[in-house]
Amino acid sequence: MNTNPVWTKRATKRLRDAARYIAENFYPEYAIAFSNDVINTANLIGENPEIGSEAFPKRNIRNCRKLLCKNRRWWVFYKMKPDHVEIISVKHAMQNIQSPRNL
Predict the structure, then answer these.
(1) Does some domain include residue 103?
(2) For residue 89, which of 29, 51, 64, 102 sits 20 to 30 Å off, Cα-Cα?
């Protein structure tokens, strides 16, 4: 399995938009730290895909998982594919994500 995660367009956009929002409304330095935290979390997932928990256990979607970032405020959602890990979204922990459609 390839240990480098593959980022979807949606995940890349979510990360970019969140970092831009943080930089414009809070501190640019925090936006950089946030982006680094998310990227480091995604890289951990690539090295060990089983590290996260099932994202939607009630829906029985076993290949869709999530992992909380070190800052404990953001989730990285991903799918386990046969040959790689696909990062599908980045969401704030306060957002109520009930299904993959909310990602």
Answers:
(1) no
(2) 29
Task: Tell which residue, 91, 88, 56, has the closest CA to residue 73.
Answer: 91
First to last CA, the chain: 25
Query: Is-above-0.90 flag for pTM?
Result: yes
CATH code, domain carrying 46: 3.30.2310.20
* Residue whose entry in the numeric block shows the structure tokens 């992992």: 67
Rg, C-alpha atoms of the chain: 13
Q: How many domains does the chain have?
A: 1
**pLDDT reading at 34 higher than 90:** yes
